[in-house]
Design goal:
Chain lengths: 276, 623, 214
């Protein structure tokens, strides 16, 4: 039964079977559990994106693996027999054209799909000072990277600066990421946000958290001696908790608040600072 | 008289002596120029100018000691040049300037090999540190220095990892030439690379460098004097790459034998050509970028200092304009080796020759148009991200050509699973994983999480280590019998392959997951819940390191102790180098051969006359 | 003959690797101050230049610690867990100014207050900051005010003695649970380096170190 089919039919059959088995796993098991999780709007869009990529990759992966393994078993020469050549095939135009067509369509689909996802939400990545997708009602939070600590500033709450990042749930947040010295990268893992902190640059990223939780913050760009220690834990809290927290911060840090410069989108220190 | 001349001749020893003298001369000169009165050097205690001059004069002394000045000086004095560099036989040739392309190839093999092992040792030390979530093993900033040394060593030295040993040795033979177009420049590329590698190691004496292989500003401007070693190292590597690329291009363009038209070049030569184009065009950008870094560090210019009108983005863009072609400089020769070895052990011609050539050249062209995908979250102009997403994903088309050609070559072949063939099949698997993980990184929404994480690190290890290093070892098992005349033990080779392949995937497969779970690159600490996975990876990495030692044992055992003669054609290959005696005689061919229309005359029904059998008298080899 | 050469080569390479590993591990021996019950006293000094006696980089700014009566350049300390640590800092260095004025306010210490020359304070003028003492993972941050520019009898480089112009800062913090914490200075005080954050700011043994809580 098996032997009456050609090599090509068998490979096609095995590829189809493998794909049919794997696709549900990708869609229903692996996909929904892809990082960074669905706790935020951009996180959800990234999970969706990752799932689509997994689905698109599956048939290609299965095909190539099935093909190579099949070839190794089916076309393997007998070690005992003297050296013999295979078929003199130098190409096959229809399959070349088919491959070219399929891969081109896939690649164009991925590029268009990725661009659409990117332009619709910004996907949580740093968009530079002039973001494409803006959210005017978002709560601005400035993230200030310096060697080697992130601090956070809330311009709509009197410009208070804090050592911990706390954001309210269900409210769009605009992170304005900047640096005072070397390049850092603000990575709020569970939020699905990553934006490089460049000196003198306002790098904006949007996010809206859907549940209260804690999240890890790490620096994702090598910034020197304590790069590995530049981590922190942030919190998503309810609106009322956020209001009382920010009031407490304004009280605690009143001492330094009077020295803070007026809020600006990039926190540029005096270039002629003294040293030593 | 002749013996005395040989004794005081130019070799590695005189080079080392003159190099050290030059180093201290430059150091002294730097202090004379700048003096102790310059406030900057006084405050910081770091005289970078002196160190750059020391490296510069040291390298010049090293090259003079090797004999690179002999030829130009003799010509300037109106004397006839000696060709001693090539004529001298014996072991001495390997320890000095030699213009025989086969000697340079073997020099590269040992030199590059030594630095792979140093780079690999650094990787082991990195993984040892990552056994626990907190810093426990290496003092202070030594962890970052190890990361930087490993990265710079592998990304710098390995640019010539395949072109150095194999292209230098094989390209002239494959195109029917007796030498490279510029034999002295060929030797220069090797010795520049060795000087560069040594300079990088001296970084440790000056406090190391904290930036990793990317050397981002402004961190690199803040760094200790060890950073200067990185700058000098990469600039010399860039110089070596530029010269190597130009030399290869000129050789292939001008020195092809009669009948060797472009459509008949072996695939490995095409891989070399594509790589050489990238080397010749990308590496000069690196050299000028590093020159700017050096100026910022010494003459206090501000190319990359935002407070004084410069921009760190400028560095990121310039670096990745070089850096992305660079990763294809590492990958393309592997593709060449893949399509060169697959036909031999499938006993079939390359499937889709033109498609494969288009693929290699297409990858080369596109690799210049994708560099900003390294800056997707950097705050670059947000509007251009869709373009770079598209151009990056477009690269998977020519890469797909390579894959389909490899698969087509296997089709209905007579596959023999020798050690080189196993490495090539592993290449297909590794590069497949590398390519698929690359799709996540090219897609901006997905890249937001994976960027700068262990995921991207594992991705480029799959493409570069899984691609380049597996092809490198495949090339060693395939061509070293030709180079030395001795077989490498097959049984130990298979053990090496299986341990390396399984340990490699057991190391970098989990790292893809760890990256997705939120572990940034180059961080010495990590979240506690990742410890189990990290320990698994570290142990796998140690096994991977052990497999390299197994290779070393096999290599030394086979070539030094067992010495099983390989014969002229141990693999039944039909390419031209295997029709020559092993090792190949100094002059390659008695008569320059004329090539027929089919570079891969495998297959049923192909006449035996299609194989090139150039006339060679092995007796002429020992002259 | 061949065997001897190969074994000899292998031994030589192994020795080189061993030397390399030892070089990488080599670091300062942690200083363990004597604890009275659950209380530890740390006496620190900050100097504008460490001086030729203590370091080849004689012009680098540095923290020093009083180890049994001698001022040494050791910045790795072992402290007991859940201990109360009384810190005294004698600052002989001038004013550099903070890049981020937020860091001029103390946090993570007892009462969020420190004493400056005997006076209780919570924050200082950021322009007058000379250094900070900070253990970010324990939330500890204390700004250290510099001596006035026109102060008499300034200490140019270590060793400095108590008769020279200095500011005295004291505060108390708690070590909490076991761990390996970094401490650092947040003031861009490394003269000559870009952003004032190179050299001594990125080399352990000057303005950075570890607190091993055991």
């Amino acid at each position: 039964m098996w032997s009456k089919y050609s090599h090509a039919t068998r490979i096609a059959a095995l590829t189809t079977i493998g794909t049919i088995i794997l696709l549900p796993i990708m869609i229903f098991v692996l996909g929904p559990n892809m990082p960074p999780g669905k706790g935020t709007d951009v996180g959800k869009s990234q999970v969706f994106d990752n799932t689509v990529l997994l689905i698109v990759m599956t048939p290609f992966t299965v095909f190539i693996l099935v093909y190579v393994l099949y070839s190794v078993f089916a076309f393997r020469a007998d070690a005992a027999e003297p050296l013999r050549d295979g078929a003199h095939i130098r190409g096959h135009m229809p399959s070349q054209i088919a491959w070219l067509t399929i891969t081109t369509i896939t690649v164009l689909f991925l590029a268009i799909f990725g661009s659409a996802e990117l332009l619709s939400s910004g996907a949580g990545g740093g968009q530079g000072p002039h973001p494409i997708s803006k959210d005017k009602g978002a709560l601005p939070v400035q993230v200030i990277g310096q060697q080697w600590e992130f601090t956070y500033r809330y311009p709509t709450y009197g410009g208070v600066e804090t050592a911990q990042l706390v954001i309210p749930v269900d409210r769009p947040i605009a992170f304005h990421v900047t640096s005072l010295d070397a390049i850092h990268s603000f990575w709020a893992y569970e939020l699905g946000v990553k934006a490089d902190a460049n000196p003198g640059v306002d790098n904006v990223a949007y996010v809206k958290a859907k549940t209260t939780r804690t999240f890890q913050i790490r620096c994702a760009e090598l910034c020197g001696l304590w790069h590995g220690y530049m981590y922190d834990t942030g919190k998503v809290v309810s609106d009322s908790q956020f209001t009382s927290w920010i009031a407490a911060q304004r009280k605690q840090f009143a001492g330094s608040m009077k020295y803070l410069p007026p809020y600006a989108t990039s926190y540029t220190p005096d270039p002629t600072f003294r040293a030593g | 008289m002749t013996n005395a001349r040989k004794l005081i001749g130019f070799n590695l020893l005189t080079a080392a002596i003159l190099g050290v003298i030059g180093y201290y001369l430059g150091w002294w000169l730097g202090h004379q120029i700048t003096g102790p009165s310059v406030a900057y050097f006084d405050d910081t205690g770091q005289n970078d100018i002196a160190l750059y001059l020391a490296y510069l004069v040291g390298v010049i002394g090293f090259l003079i000691g090797l004999g690179f000045a002999n030829y130009p000086v003799q010509r300037m004095l109106g004397k006839p040049p000696t060709l001693r560099e090539k004529e001298q036989g014996g072991w001495g040739r390997y320890f000095g300037l030699c213009t025989d392309h086969k000697v340079v190839g073997i020099q590269y093999l040992w030199g590059i090999g030594a630095f792979i092992f140093i780079g690999g040792l650094n990787a082991m030390l990195i993984r040892y540190e990552l056994l626990t979530p907190t810093q426990h093993a290496w003092n202070g900033n030594n962890y970052l220095t190890l990361v930087g040394l490993h990265g710079a060593m592998m990304m710098g030295m390995m640019t010539s990892g395949i072109l150095g040993p194999f292209a230098n040795y094989l390209v002239p033979i494959m195109i029917g030439a007796r030498r490279m177009a510029f034999p002295r420049i060929e030797a220069l590329t090797f010795w520049l690379l060795m000087a560069a590698g040594f300079i990088l190691m001296t970084s440790l004496a000056f406090g190391g460098f904290p930036t990793g292989w990317t050397g981002y500003e402004p961190l690199s401007d803040q760094a200790n004097m060890g950073m200067d070693a990185y700058v000098a190292f990469f600039a010399l590597v860039g110089l070596s790459m530029t010269l190597l690329g130009l030399n290869m291009l000129v050789t292939v363009i001008t020195m092809r034998a009669p009948g060797m038209s472009w459509g008949r070049l072996p695939m490995f030569v095409w891989g070399t050509v594509a790589t050489s184009v990238l080397m010749a065009l990308a590496a000069p950008v690196l050299i000028s970028t590093l020159f700017m870094v050096a100026m910022d560090r010494t003459a206090q210019t501000s190319f990359f200092n935002d407070q004084l009108g410069g921009s760190p983005y400028l560095y990121e863009n310039l670096f990745w304009f070089f850096g992305h072609p660079e990763v294809y400089i590492l990958a393309l020769p592997g593709m060449g080796i893949l399509l060169e070895i697959l036909p031999v052990f499938s006993r079939k011609p390359v499937w889709g020759y033109r498609l494969a050539v288009t693929g290699m050249l297409g990858i080369g062209l596109l690799s210049f148009l994708v560099w900003q995908h390294h800056l997707f979250v950097s705050g670059m102009n947000a509007d251009v991200r869709p373009f770079y997403m598209l151009s990056t994903e477009l690269i998977s088309l020519p890469t797909g050509f390579i894959f389909i050609c490899a698969l087509g070559t296997l089709w209905r072949g007579k596959i023999r699973l020798t050690v080189p063939m196993l490495f090539m099949l592993a290449w297909i698997f590794n590069f497949l994983i590398g390519g698929l993980s690359g799709v996540f990184l090219s897609d901006v929404p997905s890249d937001v999480t994976t960027h700068g994480s262990f995921f991207s690190m594992a991705h480029f290890h799959y493409t570069i280590m899984g691609g380049l290093l597996f092809a490198f070892f495949g090339g060693i098992y395939y061509w070293v019998p030709k180079m030395t005349g001795y077989m490498i033990n097959e049984r130990l080779g298979k053990w090496h392959f299986w341990i390396m392949f399984l340990a490699f995937n057991s190391t970098f497969g989990p790292l893809l997951v760890i990256g997705f779970l939120g572990m940034p690159r180059r961080a010495v600490t990590y979240a506690g819940y990742l410890q189990g996975a990290n320990d698994w990876v570290s142990v796998s990495a140690f096994v991977l390191g052990a497999s390299m030692l197994l290779f070393l044992v096999n290599f030394v055992y086979s070539l030094v102790f067992a010495q099983v003669p390989a014969g002229d054609n141990p693999w039944g290959s039909k390419s031209v180098e295997f029709q020559l005696p092993s090792p190949v005689p100094v002059h390659n061919f008695d008569v320059i051969p004329t090539f027929g229309p089919d570079p891969y005359p495998y297959g049923e029904g192909v006449s035996a006359g299609a194989v090139q059998r150039p006339a060679v008298n092995p007796a002429r080899a020992e002259r | 003959m061949k065997l001897a050469a190969v074994v000899g080569g292998a031994v030589a390479i192994a020795a080189l690797i061993a030397a390399y590993v030892v070089f990488l591990t080599h670091g300062p021996t942690p200083y363990r101050p004597a604890a009275q019950g659950n209380t530890v006293n740390l006496e620190l000094q900050t100097v504008a230049a460490v001086g030729p006696k203590l370091s080849p980089n004689e012009n680098w700014v540095s923290y020093l610690i009083n180890e049994h009566g001698t001022w040494t350049r050791s910045t790795v300390w072992t402290l007991p867990a859940n201990a109360t640590v009384h810190v005294t800092v004698l600052n002989y260095d001038g004013q550099s100014g903070l890049r981020n004025p937020f860091l001029s306010q103390a946090r993570g210490i007892d009462g969020n207050m420190f004493t400056l020359n005997g006076k209780k304070m919570g924050s200082i003028n950021p322009d007058e900051a000379s250094h900070t003492f900070a253990i970010p993972d324990l939330g500890v941050l204390v700004p250290i005010e510099g001596i006035a520019d026109d102060a008499k009898n300034q200490c140019d480089f270590a060793p400095c003695d108590a008769s020279m112009a200095h500011e005295t800062i004291t505060f108390t913090f708690h070590t909490g649970k076991k761990g390996h914490y970094r401490w650092q200075c947040f003031v861009p005080c490394a003269a000559g380096f870009v952003y004032g954050f190179g050299g001594p700011m990125q080399t352990i043994g000057y303005m950075d170190g570890f607190v091993n809580v055991v």
